[in-house]
Amino acid sequence: MAQSFLSRAASSTHAQFAATALVSGAVVAGAIIGYQQLAREERVSRLKSSIPALEDDRNSAQLTSFGTLVPPTDEDQRDEALAKRAQAGDYDDDLILEQLARNRVFLKPEGLDKLRKAFIIVVGCGGVGSHCTTALARSGVSRLRLIDFDQVSLSSLNRHAVATLADVGSPKVQCLQKRLLAVAPWVHFDMRIHKFDGASAEGLLGPWSDGQKPDFVVDAIDNIDTKVALLKYCHDNKVPVISAMGAGTKSDPTKVTVGDISVGTDDSLSRATRRRLKLLGVTSGIPTVFSTEKTGEGKAELLPLPEEQFQKGKIGELGPLADFRVRILPVLGTMPAVFGYVAANHVILSVTGYPLDYAAGKGREKLYDQLLAGVQSTEQKIARAQNPDDPDVAVGLKVPITAGDVAFLAEDIFQGRSAITHIPTRLSLIRWSRPREAMLLRLGEGADEQKSAKLRLSDLVCMTKNEAVIHLKEVLLGSKSLEDLYDAETIERVERRLKEAEAFEKYR
Q1: Under DSSP, is residue 202 helix (H, G, I), strand (E, B) or coil?
Q2: What is the C-alpha separation between 480 and 6, in angstroms, rounded?
Q3: Strand, helix or coil for residue 324
Q4: What is the pTM assigned to this prediction?
Q5: Does one domain contain both 375 and 344?
Q6: Which parts of the sequence belong to the THIF-type NAD/FAD binding fold domain (predicted)?
Q7: Which of 112, 305, 369, 396 has the most CB within a 10 Å radius?
């Protein structure tokens, strides 16, 4: 039967035509694929053959002083030789003053003198950091420490201040030194090819070789963990610092400004940095460069990482270093330059004592102190209610919450509004749920006894003071449940915010 079917199929005109078409299609597809492969190989071959051969009289096996395997050009060698002379003092100071004449007129001789003696550290030498460094060197700063572990890539060239195709593959810090020595040969560079982290802070941000402490630090890092570590170190050690926030997805240069870290913005890097710093007790006192530009229809957005990236393995293993970002951010090449020059401008004005007229941002420490006092008061009332036979139970009661914690909750989790009615005035922080167990933790006895409340960030909700009074009476000290007092939508909204707060407990 099967043989009869095959013989009929073989004699069928339709079957023969179909088979012929199938074979022809396979041949054509194979030819196309083969042609594409040959064309690709030819393009790669042409690219490789277009790379100039190294001259035999050059020692190409060793790194140059600029950190590359590409031999320096005659111009590079001339710039380097002139820089060595200039840094050794063999350079006419009148020529330097002539080059800096416009700055000297603007800043006055005494201001320029301060700038020329300044020691500035730039951490992060990509789009923002490279433009900032360039502006500082051109303006007269004579001591620059550049910190960055990364190399120039092809994608760097849309926003880097000085990098060229010849610099691709070389360390960013040495690329900057190489190019800027040709502009300001008297500048002393201290290059650190190192990824900044908290453990290395003291060494990387330490004094110059002669003991001079940094006059200013510029934070141009785009990784949250290292950014927070840098700003926390500078804050705690009273090192002047300015932090550049996210230039990604921004397009309006007129919206870039300087303000205190306490000023809220929609920028994700700014918001995440501010949140983490508050949990570490830093609520204000750090100037930042940020954009007030709002997102809108048709504008670039920071999209979530595609699902296929997650399927490749642990996300942390996809980056060049552990815990480093792996996404390619949408960045308009002009915007990092704007951020970098605004940061450099702030440093120059601050070092020289020139008046800073822009708004520095208003701290809200008084509000945070009031919120903290409110938490303390309500916890004492709950402690008395749980221990009615101990009149002194609330005396000396401590709460494990800081001003930074309440700032984080009020500003970043609850957006400065009541979670119940969205009213933004006369705010208070109070427990959301009645404690299911004794909320008092007692250690020691007598005069050495320490009493504290068992309280987490995710226990507290933001309300107006009037709402908090009712909540305390009816729920925390009364018999009503949350469902008795609030509708389902309000409860769901509050508990969603509390889960968000809980995720940040590990950063405290």
Answers
A1: helix
A2: 83
A3: coil
A4: 0.68
A5: no
A6: 102-361
A7: 112
